[in-house]
Design brief:
Elements lengths: L17 H38 L2 E3 H12 L2 H15 L9 H28 L9 H25 L5 H27 L4 E3 H20 L5
Antiparallel strand pairs: 1-2
Helix pairs in contact: 2-4, 2-7, 3-4, 3-7, 4-5, 5-6, 6-7
């Protein structure tokens, strides 16, 4: 093979790695050209996400689940206690006497569920990381495990305020609610988040909407 570029005589053989070096140089140029448009938006998006978190405009997965756990520990237990107190007000339960005392006790239990639910939500949320890094079946399985863990700890803590024996009934009430709510929130959070970051304007409808729907179902007259 000979060099016909014009800079050397055709009588001189080209170096052995002449074509290899040229092809490698062309390949590097093509890779750089193709990757350049993708790198700039990716870096910009990451910086924008970090800036949004710093300014409070977005939430990490752990914080998103912390807020969800807070509201889930507030609305559904409140709905359960409201049904009990309403029945007591009508004189249909043993709680008719000392109505105010039971109301204060239920409010205390609700506050504990809210506080513990927030901490447990943050704990389980840290294990999720970027939800899009998991397949849908894997995310649903993780959501069910998180629901059992969250419901067991939150329900037991809130129920324990009721003379300790309420811890057992607290778990029985909290776990079914969590099993219904966590998979829904996990799927919606996965759809609306990016790289484990979700904008606050998208998070609040989820964090409030899913627990509010669960509370509405509990208060439904069709559920006895």
């Amino acid at each position: 093979m000979y060099d016909t570029g014009g800079s050397q005589s055709v009588c001189y053989a080209a170096p052995r790695d002449y074509n290899i070096a040229g092809r490698l140089s062309w390949l590097r140029g093509e890779l750089a050209r193709q990757e350049a448009p993708r790198k700039v938006p990716t870096v910009a998006d990451e910086r924008r996400a970090l800036r949004a978190v710093a300014l409070g405009g977005a939430q990490t997965t752990a914080e998103a689940y912390a807020w969800f756990g807070t509201i889930l520990g507030l609305f559904p237990p409140f709905a359960i206690f409201a049904r009990i107190l309403w029945a007591a007000y009508d004189g249909r339960t043993p709680f008719t006497r000392d109505f105010l005392l039971w109301s204060l006790l239920f409010l205390s239990m609700n506050a504990v569920c809210c506080a513990v639910g927030r901490q447990m939500g943050r704990v389980v949320g840290r294990g999720v990381g970027d939800p899009r890094a998991r397949s849908l079946p894997a995310l649903l399985f993780v959501a069910l495990v998180m629901a059992v863990a969250w419901g067991s700890v939150t329900g037991a803590a809130g129920g324990a305020v009721g003379f300790l024996v309420g811890a057992f009934f607290g778990v029985l009430c909290a776990v079914p609610v969590a099993l219904a709510a966590f998979p829904v929130f996990a799927l919606l959070h996965r759809a609306l988040s990016r790289d484990g970051i979700i904008e606050s304007r998208r998070l609040w409808p989820l964090a409030y909407g899913v627990p509010a729907t669960a509370a509405a179902m509990i208060l439904s007259p069709w559920i006895k």
